[in-house]
Amino acid sequence: MDSFALSLPSLSRVAVGGPDRTPTRRERLAIVSTADRLCGIAAYTAALREQLSHDFDVTVLDLDQYLLRGQHASLRPLADRHIKELCCELARFDAVNLQLEYGTLGRSARDIYRRFCWLVAAAPRLCITFHTLVPPPRFPAAELVRAMAAFDLRRAVRVRAEFRRNNVLSVMIAAQLRRSQRTKQVTAIAHTRRNRRELNYVYGLEHVFDHPLAFLPPTRANAIRNGARRRNFPLLERLPDHATLIGVFGFINSYKGVGTAILALRHLPDDHHLLIFGGIHPNEIVPRQPIHPHLSSLYEEAYVDATPYDRIIGQAPQPPVKLMVNGDQGLAGLLAAHPRDLSSRIHFMGAADDHDFLHGMATCDVVVFPYIEVGQSASGPISQALELGCRIIASRTHTFLSFAEYHRDAIEFFDIGNYLELAARIRARRQFAPRQDPPAYNVETNRAVYVAANSRLPALRRSGGKGSITVPQGSMLPAHAVQER
């Protein structure tokens, strides 16, 4: 089985086809993806469409999230019809790229699998970009025994349901792709080298490429950097010019680790300010809920509107301790603002559009990604921050460690949740000097990967011995190795 895996550091030979290989017309490429502006995949799809516009006649086919994610029973057959209509459209294209995030195809594993199979069968030539990769699960026998021994039926049902879902989204998806690649061209693109190897050796796919997310061409990145000014953000106008700005980006969610950044802010000088670019995801807006629980927890971490009395009573055992206060001065101290109140140093910048999001990154002195581990394959914001040349400090999740394999000497790391280490790194001098050149893995190398993965496989034939590939003229594949098994 031949596996085509792209890896810049290990250069082989790349032979580029001559003029006789130039196609007479651009092939028609359909990108099946959600266009929902609230989804990071939609932003990547928009960037990808621009990158491939000179190589293919690109059309984006939108996965309607209202139908596919709807919970009302009447929407389920409408969602199936929507996918079938997309499948009918795929017949007029030469190649299809599916931007696969399982949840965009439905809520239940069976719905996702059924609709996925329809799209795979309808695609004349298929390339799948795996934004999430579910490894084949082991049967949780021990956990089920513990749950049953404790007569915890709910836990047992939940464990069993999670196993069945992961089994469908890994074993059954992989089997469908293996069957399909016997009769048609099927390629895959992963965002990490580990995921590429899993697609090769675990999923059994023959033609797999890997490349991190890439969004911004150098010209646009330079324009954003040159146009980034603090005065462009009204919420920052009152900050002193010497203030150090620390930015976190994305929807406010527990896995983003914003609380870690707030705890680190406690151990930083008063001229350090935390900017939170993002808001609560609209899908988490609950009727008659006065404040989102996670947002409330951030207020508690920052001692917002808290008094020493509140914290003493809140942390006291039951029944509460009795406080003896001598004089009005002691009472005033207990009821005054808490000395650790960080409300003047934390700035919620709101759910920014793409323009303010990117300009906000370029404005910050340091961009922090304090995520916890949730099994993600990639992160759009860290890719954009790197392309903008920002100073990046990230938690040591598998996602960010895998991303750093492509971008050496570009990211400073701290252990997940270690806010003391994060604070120390922010105060220390920059570990890596700013880069003047674009990153080695960029929009052009990403474009080359997608051109190769969506072109006909004869374009990836052997040429002149092991490690050598031939690509169509115009693809301009950079130094990429071909690995074989």
- Could you say what the CATH architecture of the largest domain is? 3-Layer(aba) Sandwich
Structurally, the number of domains stands at 2
State the end-to-end CA separation. 6 Å
Question: Which term fits the overall shape?
Answer: globular
Across the major sheet, the strand order is 3-2-4-5-6-7
* Rg (C-alpha, Å): 26 Å
Spans of at least 5 consecutive residues whose pLDDT stays below 50 are 1-21, 331-336, 459-485
Largest sheet: 6 strands, parallel
Output the CATH topology of the largest domain. Answer: Rossmann fold
- Round the mean pLDDT to the nearest integer and report it: 84
Number of E-type strands: 14
**Sheet/helix structural class:** alpha/beta
Q: What top-tier CATH class of the largest domain fits best?
A: Alpha Beta
Work out the helix count: 17
Helical content class: 25-40%
Strand content: 5-15%
Structure overview:
- By secondary structure, this protein is of the alpha/beta class.
- It folds into 2 domains: 13-213 and 442-471, Rossmann fold; 218-305 and 341-427, Glycogen Phosphorylase B (Rossmann fold, 3-Layer(aba) Sandwich), CATH 3.40.50.
- 38% of the residues lie in helices and 15% in strands.
- It has 17 helices and 14 strands.
- It has a 6-stranded parallel beta sheet with strand order 3-2-4-5-6-7. A 6-stranded parallel beta sheet has the order 10-9-8-11-12-13, sandwiched between helices.
- Strand 2 (27-33), helix 1 (40-51) and strand 3 (56-62) form a beta-alpha-beta unit.
- Helix 3 packs parallel to helix 4, helix 4 (109-122) runs parallel beside helix 6 (153-180) and helix 5 packs antiparallel against helix 6.
- The termini are close together.
- The model is unreliable at 1-21, 331-336 and 459-485 (pLDDT under 50).
